[in-house]
Amino acid sequence: RSSYSCCFFVLPCCFFDFHGKYSRRQSKKTQYREYLDFIAQVGFVCGFHVEEDCLRIPSTKRVSFIGKSRTYPAAERALMDKQITQFINSRRTCAVASCDRRVGFSHKDYCGGLCREAGSRPPEDETETAGTIWMPGFQPREKVEQIRNCASLPRDFVDEVVLNVANLLLNAGPQKSCSDKQDGNMNTWNQGESLSLREVAEHLNKETLKKLKSEYGGLQTLLKNNHQVFEVLNGRVHIRDWRKEKPPSNTKPEVKRRLSAEAFKTRLCWFFIHHPDGCSLPSEACPYAHGSEELR
Length: 296
Hints:
The chain has 296 residues and is an alpha+beta fold. The chain has 3 domains: 8-94, no CATH class; 148-170 and 191-240, Arc Repressor Mutant, subunit A; 248-295, no CATH class. It contains 11 helices and 8 strands. It has helices at 31-45, 77-90, 94-102, 107-119, 130-133, 155-170, 197-202, 206-213, 218-225, 254-264, 270-274; strands at residues 8-10, 48-54, 63-70, 177-182, 185-190, 195-196, 230-233, 236-239. The strands form 3 sheets. A 3-stranded antiparallel beta sheet has the order 1-3-2, with helices on one face. It has a 3-stranded antiparallel beta sheet with strand order 6-8-7. Helix 2 (77-90) runs antiparallel to helix 4. The longest helix is centred in the middle third of the chain and has 16 residues, at 155-170.
């Protein structure tokens, strides 16, 4: 719609329509083939001779479409624009109506505005922004997407939250000790209590919670990212006991197992440094380094 001389190349991947996820309509076709046919239909409705090609790339989604020429003369551009608008409106869903209300205009006003725009003469200046012509209120994504999965939080902040939550679990109730025989001696290791995510959140200060809420997943994501220390199951937070973890497969040759075990120790063991009972595993069995001298 930006220009009569515009051409296009598209490599369909994720199944999306104009206003949300693509809804299947034919069970006799695979979802991928049905979606490809839909994309080809979009190109045809937009007035293109649509060509299909299969790229030689290492991907299961490698069917592409190319539009190099139009099916109508330039004089019929206004009529074609109206046809495109009607096609877009015909694929709207109820979910979009609620989205329209959130951004401050009604579904009726939106559709009416599009039809009025489609019926008018196309603008002389094709550089005019498409958002004001075709899609009132449309907000494109930023050129640089912000990473919001707790990975970009300051390391000091993350370490502080991890230590606070771990101490909370260790001191939440009667100590739960797990017994383990090592070298013939009985050792007890405090595994602490388990708490719900809500209970953990109630013990964190407002500033910490505010910072976590700005990230996708918030507290739960941060705890799962620190899987060395925590285990989150069914909405409850536990301190991970590495003695219960499944041992690695012994199918590799002995030399390769020894080399991979040595190379794996690239991080310090949190329990060795912070847990009151130290690590539940001996140094040779722990996948993390007990002291900086073990780091590789």
